[in-house]
Amino acid sequence: MKLLKDILYGVGLRAVSGSTNVMVNEIHFDSRNVKMDDVFIAVRGTITDGHKYIEKAINSGAKAIVCEELPEQLVNEITYVEVHDSNQALAIMASNFYDNPSKNLRLVGTTGTNGKTTVSSLLYQLFKKAGYKVGLLSTIKIMVDDTEYKTSHTTPDPLVINKHLSLMNEAGVEFCFMEVSSHGIHQKRTEGLVFEGAIFTNLSHDHLDYHNTFAEYRDTKKQLFDSLSKKAFALTNIDDKNGLIMLQNTVARKKTYALKNYADYRAQILENQFDGQLLKIDDNELWSKLIGHFNAYNMLAIYATADLLGLEKLEILRLLSELENVDGRFQYFISKEKITAIVDYAHTPDALKNVLETINTLRTGNENVITVVGCGGDRDRSKRPVMGHIASEMSNKAIFTSDNPRTESPATIIEEMEGGVEPQNVKKILSVENRKQAIKTACQLASANDIILVAGKGHETYQETNGERIDFDDFKMVKDFLKSLDK
Ligand SMILES: CC(=O)N[C@H]1[C@@H](OP(=O)(O)OP(=O)(O)OC[C@H]2O[C@@H](n3ccc(=O)[nH]c3=O)[C@H](O)[C@@H]2O)O[C@H](CO)[C@@H](O)[C@@H]1O[C@H](C)C(=O)N[C@@H](C)C(=O)N[C@H](CCC(=O)O)C(=O)O
Ligand SMILES: Nc1ncnc2c1ncn2[C@@H]1O[C@H](COP(=O)(O)OP(=O)(O)OP(=O)(O)O)[C@@H](O)[C@H]1O
Ligand SMILES: N[C@H](CCC[C@H](N)C(=O)O)C(=O)O
Ligand SMILES: [Mg+2]
Questions:
Q1: Which of 117, 334, 378, 407 is deepest in the core (most CB within 10 A)?
Q2: Residue 355 Cα, ligand 2 centroid: separation in angstroms?
Q3: Looking at the CA of 183, which ligand is closest?
Q4: What is the ipTM of this complex?
Q5: CATH architecture assigned to 2-96
């Protein structure tokens, strides 16, 4: 139990009715989870409005209500707290409830369209190898040092974030690396957290269904940098034209990294092969098991971050060379007939282009590249034709299929992808709605030395249709089919 007035500390209040000097149990923003003596925060969402469920929350035992607009009828004995912004109130109250756990951690947030999971997970790996207790909040999983927890979001809601940061405090974790998504920033899920640093990877086409315009999407990412303190560092990729914009209004220490432009941290790609690449960072050569120019950016961002956090430079270089690929990111195997099958989480146009570019630079002869790709339902529709165009232009054969259809018709999504295919590439594409069948077709079409790319779902172990999830694992599937075909 906590005192309501303590958990309201720092929240922008408009009016209070009733006493805040009361003990409350838990905080909830979903009326369906409210129990006796809890606080219910009414949040305006994208589908419905939490204010509609205030009465339901009270009937379930809520003792206090936090909202942006008071209901017409107030119930005696209930404390009503009117705030300017419920999302912000939720984030600050969640931090207070768990005794502001981010203050006891050296927390670094990574934002950008692509690379957040890769950079955060590899920083986790690197600091673990350096002997520290480390935390991670990522799309794939949450780690409290060695203990793994499942997650449903890239940047979870403030209660989930702070609960796990608090477990990190209990476990004696020193460093924590977290992904900060644009939805997370926009919904203020990270407000109230104390960051020691923030990293910007890159910005390209995604989520325009939610943010409306590219400028809005970019400015949302920028808010992470605007919120940093003077003691923090703001590390940005200035080969991306949006990189410097992130630094425009921050009071944090500004640091830059680049492969092409002049920057505080620079790297050069010396060699690129299927099993790794040779990089030069700070005049030292380094072998990385992660390939592709985009991973050279990721390695450089990690190097710079580890340096800014105080690790010794040569030690960082040594540890960088030991880092292993993250699940579902350019995860590959070579079959009996030397068919290379790659599974990659490329679900944006830029990521798909990067992965196919990397594959194409590694081709040694006239092997075929067969790409299996789909686009998620209930997500930015405008990226579908662009991804259809890229897959058909940069592969010898592109099989359009379903990703997570969610509530949309898979056939319609595929038609939208087909809309981006140039007339000269039409003969290269094949549309197979069933993803399992599409992967099987790719395996049937592949001959010795060919390369199969299965893009979009990476580490995901399910496929979601109409709220139902079935087991689905791209990597296992492609491996099993090639084996059963004795290829
Ligand atoms: C579009 C979006 O981001 N939605 C998120 C948002 O929910 P919402 O605004 O849609 O909520 P809503 O359904 O309208 O409900 C409004 C309020 O009424 C409450 N309610 C509702 C019903 C009821 O009976 N009682 C009740 O109290 C709800 O709990 C909620 O507080 O807030 C919820 C709680 O934090 C999130 O779970 C939910 O994520 C949905 C499931 C989602 O799919 N989000 C994705 C798009 C997302 O956030 N992705 C990013 C990654 C993006 C990337 O960079 O690639 C992520 O960080 O994971
Ligand atoms: N620095 C980068 N620049 C461009 N593309 C990248 C970069 N790093 C990874 N990618 C590509 O983007 C895909 C997704 O990478 P990752 O999961 O690290 O991104 P993310 O930002 O966490 O994505 P999400 O928004 O879904 O959380 C990878 O599989 C790879 O194809
Ligand atoms: N974080 C991204 C993941 C997309 C993954 C892709 N497989 C899909 O389902 O669209 C999103 O929520 O948009
Ligand atoms: Mg991620």
A1: 117
A2: 10
A3: 1
A4: 0.97
A5: 3-Layer(aba) Sandwich (3.40)
